[in-house]
Amino acid sequence: MLTKEFETPFQILNEDGQVVGPLPENLSRGRLIEWYRTMWLTRLLSNKLVALQRQGRATTWIPSNGQEAAAVGLATPLLDQDWLTGSPREMGGYLQKGFSPAAIAYFCRGYPPPPELVGKDPRCLPFTIVIGTQTLHSAGLAMAAKLKKEDSVVVGTCGDGATSEGDFSEALNFAGVFLAPLVMVVVNNGWAISVPSYKQYAAKHLAQRGIGFGVPARLVDGNDILAVHAVMEEAVNNARSGGGPTLVEAVTHRQAAHSTSDDPTRYCPPENLTLWETRDPLKRFRRFLYDGGYLDEKGDKDITLETEAYMNEQVQRAYDYPTPAPENLFDNVFAEATPRLARQREAVREEAGVVK
Ligand SMILES: Cc1ncc(C[n+]2csc(CCOP(=O)(O)OP(=O)(O)O)c2C)c(N)n1
Ligand SMILES: [Mg+2]
Question: Which one, 58, 115, 223, 315, has the greatest CB density within 10 A?
Answer without folding.
Answer: 223
